[in-house]
């Protein structure tokens, strides 16, 4: 199965459409980790499951979201209320409490993925305003492919190209 994870578009709705319709049209789930600056009832959220970010002002967005897939439980939040600028400890604890296999977040605009026990913690980076070491990629999103034995995370640039050197496969 394949999940698509995007965050921090800051008003760039077109990139969300392009990813879902042209680059990743056959994914099993689409997740949006906040800071869209769009209303919660925007039609793009018929495709993407969103959470609120610190730049989303529609109270209809949830702070967190969980989703279940066969063999995988997802916990998602933006991260601004989980202190992710300083530590992932609060977020990891929330993921454990949700019994998540995969924790998704944004906010920092910096891509990253790591494993804590058997839980994968993933920030797809900002598709529109990247920061940090990988800012020269000009924006990223992530795909997560999983089965009962592995979880593989790939980062993609705005034009859909896989950044091979960042691909990580985790044993479950």
UniProtKB/TrEMBL annotation:
The record's InterPro entries line, in alphabetical order, gives: Calcineurin-like_PHP_lpxH, Metallo-depent_PP-like, Phosphodiesterase_MJ0936/Vps29
Cofactor(s) needed for function: a divalent metal cation
Does this entry carry the keyword Metal-binding? yes
Signal peptide (UniProt feature, chain positions): none
Top enzyme class, one word, equals hydrolase
A Gene Ontology MF term for this entry?
hydrolase activity
The UniProt keyword set, sorted, is: Metal-binding
Q: Which domain of life is it from?
A: Bacteria
For this protein, the record's Pfam families field holds: Metallophos_2 (PF12850)
Q: What is its EC number?
A: 3.1.4.-
Calcineurin-like phosphoesterase domain location: 1-148
NCBIfam families found in the cross-reference section: yfcE (TIGR00040)
**Recorded family membership:** Belongs to the metallophosphoesterase superfamily. YfcE family.
Question: Which PANTHER family has this protein been placed in?
Answer: VACUOLAR SORTING PROTEIN VPS29 (PTHR11124)
Name this protein carries in UniProt: Phosphoesterase
């Amino acid at each position: 199965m394949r999940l698509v994870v995007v965050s921090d578009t800051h008003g760039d709705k077109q990139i969300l459409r392009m990813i879902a319709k042209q680059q990743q049209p056959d994914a099993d789930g689409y997740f949006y980790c906040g800071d869209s600056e769009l209303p919660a009832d925007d039609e793009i959220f018929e495709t993407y499951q969103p959470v609120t970010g610190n730049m989303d002002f529609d109270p209809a967005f949830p702070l967190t979201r969980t989703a279940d897939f066969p063999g995988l439980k997802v916990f998602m939040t933006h991260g601004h209320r989980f202190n992710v600028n300083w530590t992932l400890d609060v977020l990891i604890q929330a993921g454990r409490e949700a019994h998540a296999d995969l924790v998704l977040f944004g906010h920092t605009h910096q891509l990253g993925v790591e494993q804590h026990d058997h839980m994968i913690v993933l920030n797809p980076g900002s598709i529109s305003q990247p920061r940090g070491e990988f800012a020269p990629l000009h924006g990223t999103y992530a795909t997560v492919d999983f089965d009962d034995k592995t979880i593989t995370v790939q980062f993609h640039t705005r034009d859909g190209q896989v950044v091979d050197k960042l691909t990580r496969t985790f044993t479950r």
